[in-house]
Amino acid sequence: MKNDDGVRGLWCATLTPLDDTGRIDAARMVSHAKELFERGVAGIAPFGTTGEGPSFSATERRAGLEALLDAGIAADRLMAATGCAAVTDTIELTRHAQDSGVARCLVIPPFFFKDVPDDALFAFYAGLIDSVADPRLRLYLYHIPQFSGVRVAPSVVRRLANAYPTIVAGVKDSAADWTNTAALLECAPQLDILIGHEPDLPRLMRAGGAGTICGVANVYPDIVQRVLAPDVSAADEQRLTQFLDVLFRFPFLPAFKAIKAAQSNDSGWRALRTPWTKLPDAASDELVSSLHSLGFDVGDRWRASDRRSQ
Q1: Which domains does the chain show, CATH number per domain?
Q2: What is the pLDDT of residues 171-193, one digit of tens each?
Q3: CB atoms < 10 A from the CB of 154, how many?
């Protein structure tokens, strides 16, 4: 049986806004989080893939988490992404989360060296748990091999869940591979199995999964909420597909930030941390106008232009 304090439903892998100097914009970040909660998002995971986490230092990530907490965001609505290429940084960030009252940590495996054996991956996570040595820790394993290049196999998940039954709480599976997700549901049904690939959500929920930590929720949480519902309709699923079909014509991180900038009428949202660069103006206009033509909310600027054309 899943723990009563587990992650359920709609969580958002939040974008990280930057200021004019390229530093994390804490005010924008807090405002965005609070807006997401008002729109039905249950919790947020800062500094994951959508949040450009690996592009920020451990010091920046600590400060970002503290800014959210200092603004009054409850620790139980946060899942800190603490995985880094260096195990020492992962330990440091995970300890910081625990000391800050944020029990849930999302940990990608070290991602520079590829073809890591399963035994070595088990040893990494076991070593992290033993080094942090905090019974409050609730560890969520992060499987996103298309970015990390390191696969967190279901067999490794099962071994860790058996070895640390009160610490290992779940998996975020973002591989977009239903075969892998199904294997996780089979081998570790006691864990919160969450996915980042939104089109598989109806199937996940029917199979007993916990929900999602996803990027689409940054801009259209209502669409994701509908595909999580037990009575999801074909029209709801098609609406999600429509959005993704437009989104993936562009680099996905610059595209998400361009949409957020349009919705908020705040061009500052378009900034990204290197190696990403913001979407060129022409591409941003094409993206937003394509969504507008399909009836997606892209902010007052586009609604106003539509009224002028009538």
Answers
A1: 9-230 (3.20.20.70), 248-310 (no CATH)
A2: 999 999 999 999 999 999 999 99
A3: 21
